[in-house]
Write a structure and sequence with these properties.
8 helices, two-stranded antiparallel sheet, 3-stranded antiparallel beta sheet, globular
Length: about 220
């Protein structure tokens, strides 16, 4: 876990963006990010309740994490759902994840300088079969792991957006927030624990994307 966190820190502080956005292009990071109107607890509970494991993928023992990207519009409506990273051979998992996210209600919109903005969010949804270790985690534990994983992945995307905008002030703010939060998160994930394993499974694809940006592969 420590090596992964060090690697993540390196990636966050080294990302270099190459493109600019237009005013109406959805942003990856704003001063006030969108929040689920009903609260985080309701958000993750709804996702867990709505996800249905497809029978084909069950029969073929296909499992893994699906990342759903969508836009929170200026009025808080979630739109433009798509898979940013799926599971090889698991098209049904993609559909199940999309369907679960489409059941979400409105968000409090993201804002920049008090002005509502269109903002990208990415949600990781993990599909797992016959995982005795995971079964030992409570529903609350699973929700906590997903919440922490989302924070880490969101920080990846936020750093990319700040680099694109050449916003050095925002980059420094992100570093301060990340340094504080990652220490708190690390305390909850001792080496070799089930929680750590689950967090790594969700965060690793984000790390892979960071390397693609850093090294072009």
């Amino acid at each position: 876990m420590k090596n992964i966190l060090l690697l993540l820190t390196f990636a966050l502080f080294s990302l270099i963006g190459i493109s600019q956005t237009t005013p109406e292009t959805p942003l990856t990071f704003v001063q006030e990010m969108p929040t689920y109107a009903a609260g985080d607890e309701a958000f993750w509970q709804l996702i867990m309740d709505q996800v249905v494991y497809p029978e084909y993928e069950k029969s073929m023992n296909i499992e893994g994490s699906v990342y759903v990207n969508f836009v929170v519009e200026k009025d808080g409506t979630p739109t433009h759902f798509k898979i940013s990273k799926g599971v090889e051979g698991g098209a049904g998992l993609d559909s199940a994840a999309i369907n679960a996210c489409r059941a979400l209600g409105k968000f409090n919109p993201g804002t920049q300088d008090g002005v509502p903005q269109r903002v990208y969010l990415t949600i990781p949804i993990k599909f797992s079969l016959n995982d005795d270790a995971v079964e030992r985690l409570s529903k609350q534990d699973i929700k906590d792991v997903h919440k922490d994983a989302k924070y880490i992945c969101d920080m990846m995307f936020a750093m990319v957006e700040a680099q694109k905008s050449s916003d050095q002030k925002k980059i420094e703010e992100l570093k301060v927030d990340f340094d504080k939060r990652i220490s708190e998160i690390q305390m909850k994930y001792p080496d070799g624990s089930v929680r750590t394993s689950e967090l790594e499974k969700i965060v690793n694809p984000c790390m892979e994307e960071a390397y693609k940006v850093l090294f072009g592969r």
